[in-house]
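sorry for the late reply, my laptop died twice this morning and i had to redo everyting from scratch. anyway the thing you sent over, i finally got around to it. pasting the sequence first so we're on the same page, its 519 residues, then the predicted structure underneath. double check i copied it right bc i was rushing
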Amino acid sequence: MSLRRQLAQLLVLRASGYALDGQRRYPRWELSNNELQRGLAEGVGGVILLGGSAADLALRCRQLQRWAQGPLLLCADVEEGVGQRFDGASWLPPPLGLAKLWKRDPTQAEELVTAYGRCTALEARSLGLNWVLGPVCDVNNNPANPVINVRAWGDTAEAASALSCCFLVGLQREGVLGCAKHFPGHGDTASDSHLELPLIPHDLERLQRIELPPFEAAIAAGAASVMTAHLLLPALDAERPATLSKAVLTDLLRQQLGFNGLVVTDALVMEAIADRYGPGEAAALAFDAGADLILMPADAAAALDALEEGFSSGRWPIERLEQSLQRREQALVQSQTGPAEPAMAIEQLAALQSQHRNLQQQLLTASFEHRGGPLASGGGVNLIRLDNSLQCPALPLNAPALIRPQAAGWRTWRIDDQSPPWNLPEEKVLLQLFVRGNPFRAGKNSNENWPEQVQQLIQQERLAGLVVYGSPYLWHELQALLPADLPAAYSPGQMPAAQAMALAQLGLVGHAHEGGFTD
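ok and here's the structure:
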């Protein structure tokens, strides 16, 4: 095998979960089918998938494997169950929703989270994925964190360590590789590495006390891979982000923490890296730092050129490549593949979902909060706040958040960050806030002063009820302002099943046109 073909095995490229080029949602990052076929024929060893239904994913995974020259690492960011990204599979509440239960009843929480990992693995494997880019091991101790937030398993090192390990164990026992991320810890930042390079000013003592314990626990639990963070940590390396730092990936992760599995970069197209380094330079620096796999290089050919030049010039000994290839091979041996045909995959998924429906309800119930009684009759405005009205998988046309208030006489009014200043008519308001930390937002939501808006509606005696889906931080802030008898509910989940549970508590029950979402 040529040097270039061996190096190609270290690349993980992004593809749409849909089969046709015209269906790609993000053509900037998702390669065309011609590009994918060419790359896989040249030896590319991994693909990250996003978009499409579960059926699309099953078809796509088999298609990619047919195009490849050898076994592929097929992965996805399905931190909240496969249904988070691929419609039709199980969509589970965000991890942070279980942290509060863990403080109250650690045994129950750990059992549920282990089942959470198992559910994710079984459904991922049935559709053709053999690698899940989770758990998030970051400690989300910064409520303003825009990129981690509810994705973390805890806001303390203890909770994050315990629950991320439970997820990892449940996942890997079923033959799907896990990935502890984002090393050495992305929880205490108020900036988004998709858009800029966050600075973490903490000293090594603080990192060892807060940020590192969940990764140490994951390594001890047998994590197959660790993903790097695009962060600048002057206490470890004042010049280069962690992804490109030998002090972080080799000295700390490999030598001090003793991790021997796969090290994968976070996506190199993210602006924290791409704004500062060329695609070839970034790939070479990441490999030099200790990474094995290069995820989503901005230019795959340039990345391969730089890696090939590094070996040809004697920058690295060939043994360094052999180490990374051996780690990749060991990971493939640990993983299991799903059914050979898409039709069989969908049948298997349907059987799994009937088993996992009860788990979803248990997780939703365990993370659910409510207060007050049912909504008063009479109707008014059902004000729904979204990040983006055009791309909101939580709100299909038959979503409970839309259908149930409408059936009770409430007129729906949607707003997002593109909406003009809104002035509601003098009516009662049922306020439903879909708010969670979101990448790529660049602080667009920071000017939304919901405590002030809620206080104003209360003073005007116009707030009929409140539901917060997503951020526990916003819920805790608003809950303190509410009259004791005002109907209100919170769920970390935003999916229709979470809406059904919350609105049932407010007295809005389901009906035949809702699409089967039960209370």
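The two ends are 57 Å apart (CA to CA).
thats about all i looked at so far, will dig more tmrw
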